[in-house]
Protein backbone atom coordinates (compact mmCIF):
# COMPACT_ATOMS: atom_id res chain seq x y z
CA UNK A 1 0.00 0.00 0.00
CA UNK A 2 1.27 3.46 -0.88
CA UNK A 3 1.55 5.38 2.37
CA UNK A 4 -0.01 8.80 2.31
CA UNK A 5 2.28 11.30 3.98
CA UNK A 6 0.88 14.74 4.21
CA UNK A 7 3.83 17.03 3.78
CA UNK A 8 2.68 20.62 4.11
CA UNK A 9 5.08 22.90 2.33
CA UNK A 10 4.83 26.26 4.13
CA UNK A 11 8.01 27.56 2.55
CA UNK A 12 6.64 27.22 -0.99
CA UNK A 13 3.25 28.53 0.06
CA UNK A 14 4.85 31.68 1.47
CA UNK A 15 6.24 32.70 -1.92
CA UNK A 16 2.81 33.80 -3.07
CA UNK A 17 0.94 36.69 -1.49
CA UNK A 18 -2.75 35.75 -1.43
CA UNK A 19 -4.95 38.69 -0.50
CA UNK A 20 -7.95 38.08 1.75
CA UNK A 21 -10.29 39.57 -0.84
CA UNK A 22 -10.19 40.58 -4.50
CA UNK A 23 -12.15 43.10 -6.53
CA UNK A 24 -12.75 43.02 -10.27
CA UNK A 25 -9.98 44.11 -12.63
CA UNK A 26 -11.60 46.70 -14.88
CA UNK A 27 -9.95 49.55 -16.77
CA UNK A 28 -6.52 48.78 -15.35
CA UNK A 29 -7.45 48.78 -11.67
CA UNK A 30 -9.14 46.62 -9.07
CA UNK A 31 -12.63 47.91 -8.34
CA UNK A 32 -15.47 46.84 -6.06
CA UNK A 33 -18.35 45.00 -7.67
CA UNK A 34 -22.00 45.93 -7.34
CA UNK A 35 -23.06 42.52 -6.03
CA UNK A 36 -21.85 39.97 -3.52
CA UNK A 37 -18.85 37.75 -3.22
CA UNK A 38 -17.91 34.09 -2.99
CA UNK A 39 -15.05 32.09 -1.52
CA UNK A 40 -12.30 30.36 -3.40
CA UNK A 41 -11.17 27.32 -1.46
CA UNK A 42 -8.26 24.96 -1.71
CA UNK A 43 -9.68 21.61 -2.85
CA UNK A 44 -6.92 19.69 -1.08
CA UNK A 45 -7.71 21.10 2.40
CA UNK A 46 -11.05 22.93 1.96
CA UNK A 47 -9.46 26.01 3.56
CA UNK A 48 -10.71 29.37 2.32
CA UNK A 49 -8.01 31.03 0.25
CA UNK A 50 -9.74 34.32 -0.56
CA UNK A 51 -13.05 36.13 -0.93
CA UNK A 52 -13.70 36.94 -4.58
CA UNK A 53 -16.20 39.36 -6.13
CA UNK A 54 -19.23 38.04 -7.97
CA UNK A 55 -19.61 40.32 -10.99
CA UNK A 56 -23.18 41.39 -11.79
CA UNK A 57 -24.52 42.23 -15.25
CA UNK A 58 -23.76 45.91 -14.48
CA UNK A 59 -20.16 45.03 -13.65
CA UNK A 60 -19.91 43.06 -16.89
CA UNK A 61 -21.19 46.11 -18.72
CA UNK A 62 -18.52 48.30 -17.11
CA UNK A 63 -15.82 45.81 -18.11
CA UNK A 64 -17.04 45.64 -21.71
CA UNK A 65 -17.17 49.46 -21.85
CA UNK A 66 -13.58 49.63 -20.56
CA UNK A 67 -12.49 47.11 -23.20
CA UNK A 68 -14.33 49.00 -25.95
CA UNK A 69 -12.77 52.31 -24.96
CA UNK A 70 -9.30 50.77 -24.82
CA UNK A 71 -9.89 49.21 -28.24
CA UNK A 72 -11.15 52.40 -29.89
CA UNK A 73 -8.73 54.86 -28.32
CA UNK A 74 -5.50 52.92 -27.83
CA UNK A 75 -5.09 49.30 -28.85
CA UNK A 76 -6.53 49.46 -32.38
CA UNK A 77 -4.27 52.43 -33.11
CA UNK A 78 -1.02 50.74 -32.07
CA UNK A 79 1.11 49.13 -34.75
CA UNK A 80 1.63 45.38 -34.33
CA UNK A 81 5.24 45.94 -33.28
CA UNK A 82 4.03 47.97 -30.28
CA UNK A 83 1.47 45.35 -29.28
CA UNK A 84 4.27 42.79 -29.54
CA UNK A 85 6.36 44.73 -27.01
CA UNK A 86 3.62 44.38 -24.39
CA UNK A 87 3.15 40.69 -25.14
CA UNK A 88 6.89 40.02 -24.87
CA UNK A 89 6.89 41.92 -21.60
CA UNK A 90 4.03 39.77 -20.25
CA UNK A 91 5.78 36.60 -21.48
CA UNK A 92 8.97 37.56 -19.64
CA UNK A 93 7.15 38.46 -16.44
CA UNK A 94 5.21 35.18 -16.54
CA UNK A 95 8.48 33.29 -16.90
CA UNK A 96 10.07 35.26 -14.04
CA UNK A 97 7.08 34.83 -11.73
CA UNK A 98 6.28 31.26 -12.76
CA UNK A 99 7.07 29.72 -9.36
CA UNK A 100 4.64 32.05 -7.63
CA UNK A 101 1.95 31.29 -10.21
CA UNK A 102 2.61 27.53 -10.01
CA UNK A 103 2.13 27.49 -6.23
CA UNK A 104 -1.04 29.57 -6.43
CA UNK A 105 -2.41 27.36 -9.22
CA UNK A 106 -1.77 24.20 -7.22
CA UNK A 107 -3.39 25.71 -4.13
CA UNK A 108 -6.51 26.95 -5.91
CA UNK A 109 -6.93 24.09 -8.40
CA UNK A 110 -5.49 21.09 -6.52
CA UNK A 111 -3.10 19.98 -9.29
CA UNK A 112 0.36 18.63 -8.38
CA UNK A 113 3.06 21.28 -8.24
CA UNK A 114 5.27 19.27 -10.60
CA UNK A 115 2.58 19.67 -13.26
CA UNK A 116 1.83 23.36 -12.68
CA UNK A 117 5.60 24.07 -12.45
CA UNK A 118 6.79 21.89 -15.36
CA UNK A 119 3.82 21.93 -17.74
CA UNK A 120 1.25 24.68 -17.21
CA UNK A 121 3.49 27.64 -16.43
CA UNK A 122 6.16 26.95 -19.09
CA UNK A 123 3.35 26.70 -21.66
CA UNK A 124 1.89 30.00 -20.46
CA UNK A 125 5.04 32.00 -21.18
CA UNK A 126 5.61 30.04 -24.41
CA UNK A 127 2.11 31.02 -25.54
CA UNK A 128 2.76 34.72 -24.94
CA UNK A 129 6.20 34.58 -26.60
CA UNK A 130 4.75 32.74 -29.60
CA UNK A 131 1.87 35.16 -30.21
CA UNK A 132 4.07 38.18 -29.50
CA UNK A 133 6.00 37.06 -32.56
CA UNK A 134 2.88 37.16 -34.73
CA UNK A 135 1.64 40.61 -33.67
CA UNK A 136 3.61 42.50 -36.35
CA UNK A 137 3.36 39.76 -38.99
CA UNK A 138 -0.39 39.26 -39.31
CA UNK A 139 -0.21 40.06 -43.01
CA UNK A 140 2.06 37.04 -43.45
CA UNK A 141 -0.14 34.54 -41.61
CA UNK A 142 -1.97 33.51 -44.78
CA UNK A 143 -5.15 35.11 -43.46
CA UNK A 144 -5.44 37.98 -45.93
CA UNK A 145 -3.07 40.84 -46.79
CA UNK A 146 -4.17 43.26 -44.05
CA UNK A 147 -6.34 41.43 -41.53
CA UNK A 148 -8.24 43.52 -38.99
CA UNK A 149 -9.12 42.76 -35.39
CA UNK A 150 -12.68 42.01 -34.37
CA UNK A 151 -12.89 44.42 -31.41
CA UNK A 152 -13.88 43.26 -27.92
CA UNK A 153 -13.50 39.57 -27.08
CA UNK A 154 -15.52 37.99 -24.25
CA UNK A 155 -13.66 34.94 -23.00
CA UNK A 156 -14.94 32.30 -20.59
CA UNK A 157 -12.62 29.56 -19.31
CA UNK A 158 -12.90 26.41 -17.16
CA UNK A 159 -11.17 25.33 -13.94
CA UNK A 160 -8.92 22.53 -15.15
CA UNK A 161 -6.03 24.65 -16.55
CA UNK A 162 -6.89 28.12 -15.26
CA UNK A 163 -3.77 30.13 -16.10
CA UNK A 164 -2.96 28.08 -19.20
CA UNK A 165 -6.46 28.57 -20.62
CA UNK A 166 -6.12 32.28 -19.88
CA UNK A 167 -2.90 32.39 -21.91
CA UNK A 168 -4.48 30.40 -24.77
CA UNK A 169 -7.26 32.98 -24.90
CA UNK A 170 -5.56 36.31 -24.16
CA UNK A 171 -2.28 35.94 -26.11
CA UNK A 172 -3.78 35.45 -29.62
CA UNK A 173 -6.59 37.96 -28.95
CA UNK A 174 -4.15 40.76 -28.05
CA UNK A 175 -1.69 39.84 -30.81
CA UNK A 176 -4.48 40.13 -33.37
CA UNK A 177 -5.37 43.57 -31.96
CA UNK A 178 -8.46 42.86 -29.84
CA UNK A 179 -9.13 43.87 -26.26
CA UNK A 180 -10.58 41.33 -23.84
CA UNK A 181 -12.88 40.70 -20.92
CA UNK A 182 -12.13 37.31 -19.39
CA UNK A 183 -14.08 35.33 -16.82
CA UNK A 184 -12.22 32.54 -15.04
CA UNK A 185 -14.13 29.62 -13.52
CA UNK A 186 -15.77 30.15 -10.15
CA UNK A 187 -13.60 27.55 -8.39
CA UNK A 188 -10.24 28.78 -9.76
CA UNK A 189 -10.17 32.59 -10.07
CA UNK A 190 -6.92 33.35 -8.24
CA UNK A 191 -4.25 32.99 -10.93
CA UNK A 192 -6.33 35.13 -13.31
CA UNK A 193 -6.46 37.81 -10.62
CA UNK A 194 -2.70 37.56 -10.12
CA UNK A 195 -2.34 37.87 -13.89
CA UNK A 196 -4.20 41.20 -13.62
CA UNK A 197 -1.26 42.37 -11.48
CA UNK A 198 1.09 41.24 -14.25
CA UNK A 199 -0.84 43.42 -16.71
CA UNK A 200 -0.25 46.37 -14.37
CA UNK A 201 3.43 45.45 -14.01
CA UNK A 202 3.76 45.28 -17.80
CA UNK A 203 2.07 48.71 -18.02
CA UNK A 204 -0.46 47.33 -20.46
CA UNK A 205 -2.78 50.21 -21.34
CA UNK A 206 -5.84 50.22 -19.01
CA UNK A 207 -8.85 48.32 -20.35
CA UNK A 208 -6.93 46.13 -22.82
CA UNK A 209 -7.37 43.20 -20.41
CA UNK A 210 -10.24 43.06 -17.92
CA UNK A 211 -10.80 40.16 -15.50
CA UNK A 212 -14.24 39.65 -14.04
CA UNK A 213 -14.96 36.88 -11.56
CA UNK A 214 -18.26 35.13 -10.94
CA UNK A 215 -20.30 32.04 -11.70
CA UNK A 216 -22.20 30.89 -14.78
CA UNK A 217 -24.56 33.90 -14.71
CA UNK A 218 -21.57 36.26 -15.04
CA UNK A 219 -20.31 34.24 -18.00
CA UNK A 220 -23.73 34.34 -19.58
CA UNK A 221 -23.99 38.12 -19.14
CA UNK A 222 -20.60 38.46 -20.82
CA UNK A 223 -21.29 36.27 -23.86
CA UNK A 224 -24.71 37.86 -24.34
CA UNK A 225 -23.46 41.44 -24.01
CA UNK A 226 -24.37 43.26 -27.25
CA UNK A 227 -21.04 45.08 -27.48
CA UNK A 228 -18.95 41.90 -27.42
CA UNK A 229 -17.72 41.09 -30.95
CA UNK A 230 -16.13 37.73 -30.29
CA UNK A 231 -16.98 34.93 -27.87
CA UNK A 232 -14.30 32.40 -26.98
CA UNK A 233 -15.44 29.64 -24.68
CA UNK A 234 -13.78 26.56 -23.22
CA UNK A 235 -15.91 24.31 -21.07
CA UNK A 236 -18.61 21.69 -21.16
CA UNK A 237 -20.49 20.73 -24.29
CA UNK A 238 -23.81 21.53 -22.54
CA UNK A 239 -22.82 25.14 -21.81
CA UNK A 240 -21.16 25.44 -25.24
CA UNK A 241 -24.43 24.52 -26.93
CA UNK A 242 -26.33 27.05 -24.80
CA UNK A 243 -23.82 29.74 -25.82
CA UNK A 244 -24.11 28.80 -29.52
CA UNK A 245 -27.88 29.19 -29.24
CA UNK A 246 -27.65 32.51 -27.41
CA UNK A 247 -25.38 34.13 -30.01
CA UNK A 248 -27.21 32.67 -33.02
CA UNK A 249 -28.41 35.45 -35.29
CA UNK A 250 -25.91 38.00 -33.94
CA UNK A 251 -22.74 39.07 -35.73
CA UNK A 252 -20.54 37.63 -32.99
CA UNK A 253 -17.77 35.30 -34.03
CA UNK A 254 -17.62 32.21 -31.78
CA UNK A 255 -14.99 29.64 -30.86
CA UNK A 256 -16.03 26.66 -28.74
CA UNK A 257 -13.56 24.24 -27.16
CA UNK A 258 -15.67 21.59 -25.48
CA UNK A 259 -15.49 18.09 -24.03
CA UNK A 260 -13.91 14.85 -25.19
CA UNK A 261 -13.78 11.09 -24.75
CA UNK A 262 -10.49 10.27 -26.43
CA UNK A 263 -9.42 6.78 -27.44
CA UNK A 264 -5.86 5.83 -26.58
CA UNK A 265 -5.14 2.85 -28.88
CA UNK A 266 -2.42 0.32 -28.08
CA UNK A 267 -1.39 -2.14 -30.82
CA UNK A 268 0.43 -5.36 -30.02
CA UNK A 269 3.67 -4.19 -31.67
CA UNK A 270 3.90 -1.09 -29.44
CA UNK A 271 6.75 -0.72 -26.93
CA UNK A 272 4.51 -1.67 -24.02
CA UNK A 273 6.42 -0.07 -21.14
CA UNK A 274 6.41 3.23 -23.01
CA UNK A 275 2.74 2.76 -23.88
CA UNK A 276 1.88 2.16 -20.22
CA UNK A 277 3.58 5.45 -19.30
CA UNK A 278 1.49 7.11 -22.01
CA UNK A 279 -1.71 5.49 -20.74
CA UNK A 280 -0.98 6.68 -17.19
CA UNK A 281 -0.07 10.20 -18.33
CA UNK A 282 -3.01 10.22 -20.74
CA UNK A 283 -5.64 9.70 -18.07
CA UNK A 284 -4.11 10.59 -14.69
CA UNK A 285 -2.37 13.86 -15.66
CA UNK A 286 -4.24 16.65 -13.84
CA UNK A 287 -6.46 14.01 -12.14
CA UNK A 288 -8.06 13.36 -15.53
CA UNK A 289 -9.53 16.88 -15.56
CA UNK A 290 -8.39 17.18 -19.15
CA UNK A 291 -10.70 17.69 -22.14
CA UNK A 292 -8.34 15.65 -24.34
CA UNK A 293 -7.61 12.95 -21.70
CA UNK A 294 -7.13 9.42 -23.02
CA UNK A 295 -10.17 8.26 -21.06
CA UNK A 296 -10.96 5.23 -23.26
CA UNK A 297 -8.13 2.73 -23.58
CA UNK A 298 -8.41 0.40 -26.58
CA UNK A 299 -5.96 -2.52 -26.25
CA UNK A 300 -5.31 -5.14 -28.90
CA UNK A 301 -6.51 -8.48 -27.49
CA UNK A 302 -3.19 -10.29 -27.91
CA UNK A 303 -1.43 -7.97 -25.42
CA UNK A 304 -4.39 -7.25 -23.16
CA UNK A 305 -3.26 -9.29 -20.11
CA UNK A 306 0.28 -7.95 -20.29
CA UNK A 307 -0.87 -4.33 -20.59
CA UNK A 308 -3.33 -4.63 -17.69
CA UNK A 309 -0.67 -6.23 -15.44
CA UNK A 310 1.88 -3.54 -16.26
CA UNK A 311 -0.70 -0.81 -15.85
CA UNK A 312 -1.77 -1.99 -12.39
CA UNK A 313 1.87 -2.26 -11.32
CA UNK A 314 2.59 1.27 -12.51
CA UNK A 315 -0.57 2.68 -10.94
CA UNK A 316 0.43 1.15 -7.61
CA UNK A 317 3.45 3.47 -7.54
CA UNK A 318 1.46 6.69 -8.01
CA UNK A 319 1.50 8.99 -5.00
CA UNK A 320 -1.70 10.81 -4.19
CA UNK A 321 -1.62 13.74 -1.80
CA UNK A 322 -0.58 17.30 -1.06
CA UNK A 323 -0.45 19.21 -4.36
CA UNK A 324 2.49 21.27 -3.05
CA UNK A 325 4.62 18.20 -2.40
CA UNK A 326 7.02 17.78 -5.33
CA UNK A 327 6.64 13.99 -5.18
CA UNK A 328 2.87 14.04 -5.65
CA UNK A 329 1.55 12.48 -8.85
CA UNK A 330 -2.18 12.75 -8.18
CA UNK A 331 -3.57 15.90 -6.62
CA UNK A 332 -7.05 16.83 -5.42
CA UNK A 333 -10.27 16.74 -7.40
CA UNK A 334 -11.17 20.35 -8.12
CA UNK A 335 -14.50 20.56 -6.28
CA UNK A 336 -17.06 18.62 -4.24
CA UNK A 337 -19.42 18.79 -7.26
CA UNK A 338 -16.85 17.27 -9.61
CA UNK A 339 -16.02 14.56 -7.07
CA UNK A 340 -19.72 13.71 -6.79
CA UNK A 341 -19.95 13.39 -10.59
CA UNK A 342 -16.90 11.11 -10.76
CA UNK A 343 -18.30 8.92 -7.98
CA UNK A 344 -21.73 8.80 -9.60
CA UNK A 345 -20.42 7.71 -13.01
CA UNK A 346 -18.04 5.20 -11.44
CA UNK A 347 -20.97 3.68 -9.53
CA UNK A 348 -22.82 3.45 -12.84
CA UNK A 349 -19.80 1.53 -14.18
CA UNK A 350 -20.18 -0.98 -11.33
CA UNK A 351 -23.93 -1.25 -11.82
CA UNK A 352 -23.52 -1.84 -15.57
CA UNK A 353 -21.21 -4.77 -14.91
CA UNK A 354 -17.71 -3.41 -15.59
CA UNK A 355 -14.96 -4.44 -13.18
CA UNK A 356 -13.40 -1.68 -11.07
CA UNK A 357 -9.80 -1.64 -9.81
CA UNK A 358 -8.33 1.32 -7.92
CA UNK A 359 -4.73 2.06 -7.05
CA UNK A 360 -4.08 1.37 -3.36
CA UNK A 361 -3.76 4.97 -2.17
CA UNK A 362 -4.59 6.30 1.25
CA UNK A 363 -7.14 9.08 0.93
CA UNK A 364 -6.68 12.18 3.15
CA UNK A 365 -9.44 13.04 5.63
CA UNK A 366 -10.21 16.53 4.31
CA UNK A 367 -10.38 17.79 0.74
CA UNK A 368 -11.69 16.10 -2.42
CA UNK A 369 -9.92 12.97 -3.62
CA UNK A 370 -10.43 10.02 -5.92
CA UNK A 371 -7.91 7.21 -6.31
CA UNK A 372 -6.69 6.45 -9.86
CA UNK A 373 -9.15 3.87 -11.14
CA UNK A 374 -9.58 1.57 -14.13
CA UNK A 375 -12.61 -0.32 -15.35
CA UNK A 376 -12.10 -3.51 -17.37
CA UNK A 377 -14.77 -5.47 -19.19
CA UNK A 378 -16.23 -2.23 -20.54
CA UNK A 379 -18.43 -2.36 -23.62
CA UNK A 380 -19.31 0.46 -25.99
CA UNK A 381 -22.83 0.59 -24.56
CA UNK A 382 -21.62 1.41 -21.05
CA UNK A 383 -22.09 4.98 -19.94
CA UNK A 384 -18.47 5.07 -18.71
CA UNK A 385 -17.42 4.40 -22.31
CA UNK A 386 -19.64 7.13 -23.72
CA UNK A 387 -19.76 10.00 -21.21
CA UNK A 388 -16.98 12.30 -20.16
CA UNK A 389 -16.10 11.52 -16.51
CA UNK A 390 -13.48 14.29 -16.27
CA UNK A 391 -11.66 12.49 -13.48
CA UNK A 392 -8.96 9.83 -12.90
CA UNK A 393 -11.05 6.98 -14.29
CA UNK A 394 -10.06 4.90 -17.30
CA UNK A 395 -12.49 2.72 -19.26
CA UNK A 396 -10.75 -0.20 -20.97
CA UNK A 397 -12.00 -1.94 -24.11
CA UNK A 398 -10.32 -4.40 -26.49
CA UNK A 399 -10.05 -4.80 -30.27
CA UNK A 400 -8.67 -7.35 -32.73
CA UNK A 401 -8.06 -5.45 -35.99
CA UNK A 402 -7.10 -1.87 -36.88
CA UNK A 403 -10.51 -1.43 -38.56
CA UNK A 404 -12.26 -2.41 -35.33
CA UNK A 405 -10.05 0.03 -33.37
CA UNK A 406 -11.01 2.87 -35.73
CA UNK A 407 -14.69 2.03 -35.53
CA UNK A 408 -14.68 1.93 -31.73
CA UNK A 409 -12.53 5.04 -31.40
CA UNK A 410 -14.86 7.05 -33.64
CA UNK A 411 -17.99 5.74 -31.92
CA UNK A 412 -18.45 8.85 -29.77
CA UNK A 413 -20.19 12.19 -30.18
CA UNK A 414 -16.85 13.84 -29.36
CA UNK A 415 -13.78 14.30 -31.55
CA UNK A 416 -11.06 16.21 -29.73
CA UNK A 417 -8.05 13.90 -29.53
CA UNK A 418 -6.76 10.34 -29.88
CA UNK A 419 -3.55 8.39 -29.30
CA UNK A 420 -1.94 5.57 -31.29
CA UNK A 421 0.83 3.29 -29.97
CA UNK A 422 2.57 1.17 -32.58
CA UNK A 423 6.00 0.68 -34.10
CA UNK A 424 4.68 0.91 -37.68
CA UNK A 425 4.91 4.38 -39.20
CA UNK A 426 2.49 3.44 -41.98
CA UNK A 427 -0.10 2.38 -39.40
CA UNK A 428 0.28 5.69 -37.56
CA UNK A 429 -0.46 7.61 -40.77
CA UNK A 430 -3.34 5.37 -41.72
CA UNK A 431 -4.91 5.63 -38.25
CA UNK A 432 -4.42 9.41 -38.13
CA UNK A 433 -6.30 9.69 -41.42
CA UNK A 434 -9.21 7.63 -40.20
CA UNK A 435 -9.61 8.90 -36.65
CA UNK A 436 -12.12 11.73 -36.39
CA UNK A 437 -10.20 13.77 -33.84
CA UNK A 438 -8.67 17.24 -33.97
CA UNK A 439 -5.37 15.98 -32.55
CA UNK A 440 -3.85 12.51 -32.98
CA UNK A 441 -0.76 11.76 -30.89
CA UNK A 442 1.54 8.91 -31.93
CA UNK A 443 3.60 7.11 -29.27
CA UNK A 444 3.01 10.01 -26.91
CA UNK A 445 0.00 11.73 -25.35
CA UNK A 446 -1.04 15.12 -23.95
CA UNK A 447 1.72 17.07 -25.69
CA UNK A 448 1.06 20.73 -26.48
CA UNK A 449 2.88 23.37 -28.44
CA UNK A 450 1.84 26.97 -29.13
CA UNK A 451 2.62 26.55 -32.85
CA UNK A 452 0.27 23.60 -33.16
CA UNK A 453 -3.48 24.15 -33.63
CA UNK A 454 -5.77 22.43 -31.11
CA UNK A 455 -9.52 21.93 -31.30
CA UNK A 456 -12.31 19.51 -31.96
CA UNK A 457 -14.59 17.76 -34.39
CA UNK A 458 -18.29 17.08 -33.77
CA UNK A 459 -19.49 17.92 -30.24
CA UNK A 460 -15.98 18.82 -29.12
CA UNK A 461 -16.54 22.25 -30.62
CA UNK A 462 -15.28 24.39 -33.48
CA UNK A 463 -12.46 26.79 -34.19
CA UNK A 464 -8.81 26.21 -33.38
CA UNK A 465 -6.51 27.57 -30.70
CA UNK A 466 -2.75 27.68 -31.21
CA UNK A 467 -0.66 28.31 -34.29
CA UNK A 468 -1.65 30.73 -37.03
CA UNK A 469 -5.06 29.03 -37.02
CA UNK A 470 -5.57 30.47 -33.54
CA UNK A 471 -5.15 33.99 -34.96
CA UNK A 472 -7.94 33.46 -37.49
CA UNK A 473 -10.41 33.19 -34.62
CA UNK A 474 -9.65 36.81 -33.68
CA UNK A 475 -9.52 38.44 -37.13
CA UNK A 476 -12.26 39.69 -39.42
CA UNK A 477 -13.12 37.48 -42.36
CA UNK A 478 -10.25 35.11 -41.62
CA UNK A 479 -10.60 31.37 -41.66
CA UNK A 480 -7.50 29.25 -41.25
P1 LIG B 1 -18.55 24.57 -17.65
O1 LIG B 1 -19.49 24.32 -16.54
O2 LIG B 1 -19.07 24.60 -19.03
O3 LIG B 1 -17.86 25.97 -17.29
C1 LIG B 1 -16.92 26.61 -18.12
C2 LIG B 1 -16.98 28.09 -17.86
O4 LIG B 1 -18.24 28.61 -18.31
C3 LIG B 1 -16.88 28.49 -16.38
O5 LIG B 1 -16.20 29.71 -16.28
C4 LIG B 1 -18.34 28.63 -16.01
O6 LIG B 1 -18.57 29.39 -14.86
C5 LIG B 1 -18.90 29.29 -17.25
N1 LIG B 1 -20.33 29.14 -17.46
C6 LIG B 1 -21.18 28.25 -16.86
N2 LIG B 1 -22.43 28.43 -17.36
C7 LIG B 1 -22.36 29.42 -18.29
C8 LIG B 1 -23.30 30.05 -19.16
N3 LIG B 1 -24.58 29.68 -19.20
N4 LIG B 1 -22.88 31.01 -20.00
C9 LIG B 1 -21.58 31.38 -20.02
N5 LIG B 1 -20.64 30.84 -19.21
C10 LIG B 1 -21.02 29.87 -18.36
O7 LIG B 1 -17.35 23.56 -17.67
P2 LIG B 1 -16.37 23.22 -16.49
O8 LIG B 1 -17.08 22.31 -15.56
O9 LIG B 1 -15.81 24.46 -15.92
O10 LIG B 1 -15.19 22.47 -17.28
C11 LIG B 1 -15.25 21.16 -17.61
C12 LIG B 1 -15.60 20.96 -19.07
O11 LIG B 1 -14.80 21.77 -19.91
C13 LIG B 1 -15.36 19.56 -19.52
O12 LIG B 1 -16.47 19.09 -20.25
C14 LIG B 1 -14.15 19.66 -20.42
O13 LIG B 1 -14.03 18.70 -21.40
C15 LIG B 1 -14.29 21.01 -20.99
N6 LIG B 1 -12.98 21.53 -21.37
C16 LIG B 1 -12.70 21.59 -22.69
C17 LIG B 1 -11.46 22.04 -23.10
C18 LIG B 1 -11.15 22.10 -24.55
S1 LIG B 1 -9.83 22.86 -25.01
N7 LIG B 1 -11.90 21.55 -25.45
C19 LIG B 1 -10.52 22.47 -22.17
C20 LIG B 1 -10.83 22.40 -20.84
C21 LIG B 1 -12.09 21.93 -20.46
P3 LIG B 1 -18.56 28.62 -13.45
O14 LIG B 1 -17.14 28.35 -13.18
O15 LIG B 1 -19.09 29.51 -12.46
O16 LIG B 1 -19.39 27.40 -13.63
TrEMBL record:
GO MF assignments: oxidoreductase activity, acting on the aldehyde or oxo group of donors, NAD or NADP as acceptor
Domain Aldehyde dehydrogenase, residue spans: 30-476
Domain of life (superkingdom): Bacteria
Keyword Oxidoreductase in record: yes
Matches recorded under InterPro entries: Ald_DH/histidinol_DH (IPR016161), Ald_DH_C (IPR016163), Ald_DH_CS_GLU (IPR029510), Ald_DH_N (IPR016162), Aldehyde_DH_dom (IPR015590)
Keywords assigned by UniProt, alphabetized: Oxidoreductase
Active site residues per record: 257
Keyword Oxidoreductase: yes
Gene3D superfamilies, sorted: Aldehyde Dehydrogenase, Chain A, domain 1, Aldehyde Dehydrogenase, Chain A, domain 2
Record family assignment: Belongs to the aldehyde dehydrogenase family.
UniProt-recorded name of the protein: Aldehyde dehydrogenase family protein
Organism whose genome encodes this protein: Aeromicrobium ginsengisoli
Amino acid sequence: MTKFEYAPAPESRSIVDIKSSYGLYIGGEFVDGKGGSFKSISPSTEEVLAEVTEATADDVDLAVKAARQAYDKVWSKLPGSERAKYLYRIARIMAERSREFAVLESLDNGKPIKESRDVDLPLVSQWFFYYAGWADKLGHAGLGPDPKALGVAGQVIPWNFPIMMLAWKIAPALAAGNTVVLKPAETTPLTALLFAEVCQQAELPPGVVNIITGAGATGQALVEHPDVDKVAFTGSTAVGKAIARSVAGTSKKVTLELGGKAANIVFDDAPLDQAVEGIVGGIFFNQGHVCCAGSRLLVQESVYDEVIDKLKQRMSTLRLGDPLDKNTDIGAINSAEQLARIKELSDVGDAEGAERWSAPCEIPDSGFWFAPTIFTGVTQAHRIAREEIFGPVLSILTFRTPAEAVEKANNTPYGLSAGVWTEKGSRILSMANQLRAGVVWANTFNKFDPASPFGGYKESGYGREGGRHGLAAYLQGASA
